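User: Sequence recovery, please. Input:
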């Protein structure tokens, strides 16, 4: 295929004229905060997630790390999504909607905004009291879970977005989102050779930078686990299982990076991380849902990776400012 040739996009509405992937903006951006329209209250809110989706996975991890399972209910959609969007069915690891008996998550979107006509996404936070979606932006939701929701926890969990590290966390997050979190999608959903080539180079430039960074530092934003690590992990844990092959991110596997692979295992072995990973949902979602990329719908058996192998990162000291 010549560099200028194009193919049909998996999501045409989010494909630019040059074939590059342009993710849509999240539609609902209200904030849960004390004294606001949506105050933190145990039992008031519900979180719809997919175990396959890395953006939803962020909220699953933070909800568990912060001890909010009793205060914030959660339910899981079917990993297989068709042209009607995320659906509620009964199967391994997922079940019917417990809130309104919705059959599709799109019903909650239309109940909130009858004119909504974009792609329906997870995670989605629903307010039982007002009967509407509060927020569907994962980056904002995990900050709320670490902040406003924290007062609802039975026991205090780790502070994942501390004041003294926020500047460093934000800098890392901006870099990781652009190069890696969205970077794998820019490769996978590229609709032209040129767009793919640019995305591929950008992705691996980012991974190379994290590999260098993590050679002497246990966590991305300092000597403590933070939201930056949560956001990086949900892409890294899916890398070899789906992004390497399905999204053509194949310069090398995660397992071929000495420090990134050890870092990912370190997080995986941390309670709240590996015990929230469902590789069956992950692989079935990507390989079955993206018919433009995998028309056969065949789900690969591999890879075989030892996520429980010792990582040897316990004694690493923090490095300097990000990018230095």
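Assistant: Recovered sequence (324 residues):
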């Amino acid at each position: 295929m010549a560099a200028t040739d194009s193919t049909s996009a998996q999501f045409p509405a989010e494909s630019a004229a040059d074939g590059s992937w342009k993710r849509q903006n999240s539609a609902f951006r209200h904030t849960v905060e004390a004294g606001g329209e949506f105050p933190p209250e145990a039992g008031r809110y519900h979180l719809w997630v997919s175990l396959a989706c890395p953006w939803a996975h962020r909220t699953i991890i933070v909800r568990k790390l912060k001890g909010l399972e009793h205060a914030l209910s959660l339910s899981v959609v079917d990993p297989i999504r068709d042209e009607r969007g995320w659906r509620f069915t009964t199967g391994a690891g997922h079940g019917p909607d417990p809130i309104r008996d919705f059959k599709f998550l799109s019903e909650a979107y239309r109940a909130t905004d009858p004119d909504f006509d974009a792609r329906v996404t997870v995670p989605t936070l629903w307010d039982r009291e007002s009967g509407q979606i509060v927020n569907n932006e994962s980056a904002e939701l995990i900050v709320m879970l670490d902040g406003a929701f924290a007062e609802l926890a039975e026991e205090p969990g780790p502070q994942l977005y501390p004041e003294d590290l926020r500047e460093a966390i934000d800098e890392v997050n901006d870099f990781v989102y652009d190069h890696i979190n969205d970077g794998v999608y820019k490769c996978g959903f590229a609709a032209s050779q040129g767009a793919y080539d640019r995305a591929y180079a950008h992705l691996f430039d980012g991974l190379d930078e994290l590999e260098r960074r993590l050679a002497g530092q246990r966590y991305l934003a300092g000597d403590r686990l933070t939201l930056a690590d949560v956001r990086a992990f949900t892409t890294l844990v899916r890398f070899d299982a789906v992004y390497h092959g399905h999204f053509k991110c194949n310069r090398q596997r995660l397992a071929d990076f000495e420090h990134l692979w050890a870092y990912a295992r370190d997080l995986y072995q941390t309670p709240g991380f590996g015990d929230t990973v469902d590789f069956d949902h992950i692989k079935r979602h990507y390989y079955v849902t993206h018919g433009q990329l995998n028309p056969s719908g065949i789900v690969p058996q591999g890879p075989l990776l030892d996520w429980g192998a010792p990582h040897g990162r316990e004694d690493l000291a923090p490095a300097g400012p990000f990018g230095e």
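The mean pLDDT is 94.
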